[in-house]
Amino acid sequence: MEYSFQITYFCTVDKREQIILAAMKLLCEKGVQATPMSAIAKAANTGMGTIYNYFPTKEALINGIYLHIKTAEILVMDTALDETKSLKLRFFHFYTAFVHYYLKYPYSFAFMDQFHSSPVILEETREAGKANFLPVIELLTDGQKQGLIKEMELESLLQFLSGTINTFVRWLQTKPAKQREVLLKQQLRMVWDAIKE
Amino acid sequence: MEYSFQITYFCTVDKREQIILAAMKLLCEKGVQATPMSAIAKAANTGMGTIYNYFPTKEALINGIYLHIKTAEILVMDTALDETKSLKLRFFHFYTAFVHYYLKYPYSFAFMDQFHSSPVILEETREAGKANFLPVIELLTDGQKQGLIKEMELESLLQFLSGTINTFVRWLQTKPAKQREVLLKQQLRMVWDAIKE
Amino acid sequence: MEYSFQITYFCTVDKREQIILAAMKLLCEKGVQATPMSAIAKAANTGMGTIYNYFPTKEALINGIYLHIKTAEILVMDTALDETKSLKLRFFHFYTAFVHYYLKYPYSFAFMDQFHSSPVILEETREAGKANFLPVIELLTDGQKQGLIKEMELESLLQFLSGTINTFVRWLQTKPAKQREVLLKQQLRMVWDAIKE
Amino acid sequence: MEYSFQITYFCTVDKREQIILAAMKLLCEKGVQATPMSAIAKAANTGMGTIYNYFPTKEALINGIYLHIKTAEILVMDTALDETKSLKLRFFHFYTAFVHYYLKYPYSFAFMDQFHSSPVILEETREAGKANFLPVIELLTDGQKQGLIKEMELESLLQFLSGTINTFVRWLQTKPAKQREVLLKQQLRMVWDAIKE
DNA sequence: AATGAATGAGACTTCATTCAT
DNA sequence: GATGAATGAAGTCTCATTCAT
Questions:
Q1: Strand E closer than 7 A to residue B158 Cβ
Q2: What's the rounded Cα separation, in Å, for the pair C160 and A58?
Q3: pTM confidence score
Q4: What pLDDT, in 10s, does the model give residues D7-64?
Q5: CB C173 within 8 A of CB C113
Q6: Nearest nucleotide to B35 by CA–C1' distance?
Q7: Can you give the C-alpha Rg of chain C in angstroms?
Q8: CA dist B140 to B134, B135, B149, Å?
Q9: What's the pLDDT band for C80 if we cut at 50, 70, 90?
């Protein structure tokens, strides 16, 4: 009885997320053209029409997934930035949190890896996803003011960092879990050396 | 007669590249699902059937483009690595050559950016593209032996470098040409600081 | 209390007609395939399920509208035929009443215009709609007996008349209201000349 | 050999007409919603995609059929109007030709009957179909100038005539062929009496 | 070798209908 | 009785691929 209640609850409340998760998995594994909406419906345990109650088109679904991930990223960063710590430590926390987040949700990472520069993602959607960077921007400008971080264009720094994170995570996924912390330390050293004054 | 020969020559010899270039452009701008073979044929000024004389399927064409780009990359690197120069200079040359190459062929870059982690690219194709890295590997191991470059896993260094290049070029494309050399210098400084001992 | 009663009254008693009127409008303006049941429900201010309490299928709804209009036509004709007047006058009254009725309810007219020969209307429904013609038949046979109307097959006369009415009304709708009475007189003259002995 | 050539000729040249004829038949018999494009393709002996080489949408196909019929009507009328005959005779010839045409092509007639006032037919298409009326207009104005035909708005006359033709043909189709000429004479008498001065 | 009309499998999407609330 | 989210069968349409020219 208890169990059947759980099921009902899950089905009615979280249908949208069910769909997003199922679609994300399939899109990562097979690619856009190889995952028909019917397959997503089956994987999400819904009727095909139900998906269209939440997303008007397949493209809208993909953009929806993009935003879903970007929104989740924000939460990670907010918790990672503890203002009482030293700047270098805060930077390491932030970088580590990001890496851990993507290691924990490999489909989110794989999805972003595949779609971040795909024409399927609308400019509008991309813009909406940029809010996340605000706390990092603050961190970096603080660092520059304190003379700890190189005096260069902020955007340049941001691009550099996000590029290193993506490539690093993709590579880390191929490594056994027990080596990862060591490799992360090496990476942090390289990245910090790169941006520090 | 002369004229008709020219036409024939043009059609038979260059048709494969015509197709690749037209397809690359469309795939970058519209995405896979939004560029039918008929559109590629029209853009390449050929019949649809002609494409199938060179590539057995659409997927094969996409993988063909991938290899076409990877092959061109090799040439860049070979010319960039002049063994008489100092190691740091050779590194700078290599990095600069790569950046310039992608700035010069933005569709090649956009294509790799979009497809490098797409399931459409077969594992087999990916393997074939890895040969390019050999000269860089040599450069980095040399550096490590000479105590100039951090003693860490080679693959780790490679991943780090390719990640920084991709993100950097993507960002550089949004900047006016006259600023680019300055920004490249900043980037080189960051990257070298990151990997140097 | 009063208020809530009103609401209830409105909802239960008139719901069927609400639905018929909303559906008629939409079907005329958009056509069958372009008016989903959901659109009808919205226009009728009901839930989609409510429609199915009154009509088992969409086809049944369309046939229901057909009969609704045919039933209303009867009322018009009954009042138009005052047996104390001369036969010509009675004919004019009947024809005029019909024209006025359709001018007053343009959606009824447009609906019949569109569906009178559509395969969606079942033969059964068509039969049920034919009762209306009885008073007209009587009028015409009377006229033939009195030597006022041409001696020809009754059905032939009926078809002729209904054809002229439909086309005339469709055309009259495009004319400003103030011209209509003059045009109706012209039409009556033509029609009467056509059928009179 | 000869025969097989004929077949080939038929298939390549007339594919568009094949489709129109098959579609017209099905649409008349089943209605729009009950005739899927797949059924039309099967009836026309083509692949479904072939239809879309000639008509971009189902709606365009229906509009195409409308124009196809309207175009055929013109031919009928041109041959029917022999300027050396008396005006009354010319009118009878025109009316008779029209009736015979629709009796000969019952699907053309049934199609027009069902779609002439359907929202599926675009205003644009309707306009294009109006050219046909020119010869008839000429005939009627001639008649008015000669004092043979009632002095009333031309459009009024046209609407009246087309209304009578449609209804008459629809009814005639239910009659055995041998009675038709007699009934046509009755009809001509009624119509002429209606419009003559 | 080059072509592109023809093809039909299969994609996306709609919508009549149901049923739990 | 009223509702509308959920459903999936079935529709329209696309497009990779073929093959006769």
A1: no
A2: 54
A3: 0.86
A4: 334 434 588 999 999 999 999 999 999 999 999 999 999 999 999 999 999 999 999 9
A5: no
A6: F15
A7: 19
A8: 10, 9, 7
A9: low
| Section C147-174 average pLDDT | 85
Count the neighbouring beta carbons within 10 Å of the beta carbon of residue B29. Answer: 12
Q: List the one residue out of A160, A141, A132 whose CA is nearest residue A87.
A: A141
C-beta atoms surrounding C176 within 10 Å: 6
Round the average pLDDT of chain B to a whole number and report it.
86
Q: Please, which positions of strand E sit below 7 A from a protein CB? A: 1-21
Number of other residues whose CB lies within 10 A of the CB of residue A164: 25
Q: What is the DSSP string of D104-147?
A: H-HHHHHHHHHHTT-TTS-HHHHHHGGGGGHHHHHHHHHHHHTT
CA distance A22 to A29: 11
Does residue D182 contact residue D115 with C-beta atoms inside 8 Å? Answer: no
Which residues from A are below 8 Å from B66, CB to CB?
none
Of C75, C40, C34, nearest to C55 (Cα)? C40
pLDDT grade for A80, boundaries at 50, 70 and 90: low
pLDDT (average), residues B160-189? 87
> Phi and psi of C45, rounded to 5°?
60, 40
Say if CB B116 and CB A115 are below 8 A apart.
no
Q: Is the dihedral of CA D39, D43, D46, D51 positive or negative?
A: negative
Residue C164 phi, psi dihedral angles, 5° rounding = -70, -40
- As separate numbers, helices (DSSP H) first and strands (DSSP E) second, chain A gives 11, 0
The answer, yes or no, to whether residue C58 has pLDDT greater than 60, is yes
Structural domains in chain A, CATH included, are 1-54 (1.10.10.60), 65-195 (1.10.357.10)
Subunits next to C (3 or more Cβ pairs <8 Å) are D
Contact B61, B55 (CB under 8 A): yes
End-to-end Cα separation, chain D, in angstroms: 62
Between chains, do C190 and D190 touch, taking CB under 8 Å as contact? no
Q: What is the pLDDT of residue A79?
A: 66
